[in-house]
Write a structure and sequence with these properties.
disordered N terminus, about 290 residues, 8-stranded mixed beta sheet, GTP Cyclohydrolase I, domain 2
Length: about 290
Amino acid sequence: MTEIPKKILLGEKIPYPKRYAPEILVPLPRNINRESISIETNNLPFVGVDVWHAYEFSFLTNYGLPVAGIIKMVVPADSPFLVESKSLKLYLNSFNMERYGNNSKEGVLIILNTIRNDLNKILKTDIKISYFEYQNKVFRFDFSDYLILENNLDGEIIEYKDFNEKPELLISEISSQREIKFATHLIRTNCKITQQPDWGSAYIYMKGTKTPSKDCLLKYLVSMRNENHFHEEICEMIYQRLNFFFAPDDLMVTCIYSRRGGIDICPTRASSSELLPKYLSECNQLSYKLLRQ
């Protein structure tokens, strides 16, 4: 099995770069976790993207005027590498005292091209990237009609006793519903390197001849509580288990994680591109933020 590279910044005390530092970016092979859950890198059972929001991005113009806004990056799930989150945070902060362009518009164009080229180089893919100024906008949301599991349980008392991933929970109860749109805000997993808790929400769409009940699906999602994985890996694990046990006609899993260090990661995987969340996946659109984002 492929091992995690030795050059990894998570858990290390690293000073913020004073100048532009593309060399600080750390790529991580996606196949590390995929091998353990029987996902073939050359035959992925899904399409998808990893959506990154950097809420605290800033730089200076040539005249020293600070410019601040949000950067949204969309990384294809079929790229051979993902980027380590701490290295990306440090990299983006390395622009803080650098000067680009005679005005903010000029500077933004230079920076977006720079970030795109740097990430494409280390991830071996073509990312999409956009910049947003801090201003009031009409935000759209892909999941407004999803049922929140913890607010709509079957039965008054349900016992939760599994806190390490237990796929068998998914088949403890089979529902006759042909189509489900379920969600939970109770996702809690842990960083693969530091074991620090990560908090998030999961949105699941499934259509097929059999589906999990609300109770057993929530029990399974709660069983992630002591798992140590990156956000992208958790999303793929949930997708793979549902796909294996239920063989649905259509399947989509999106995980929206809390912001950490000014950045959130929102991976989404689906059986077809038409099922991917429209606004979240669109690089030029900021979607509605959840409470923890």
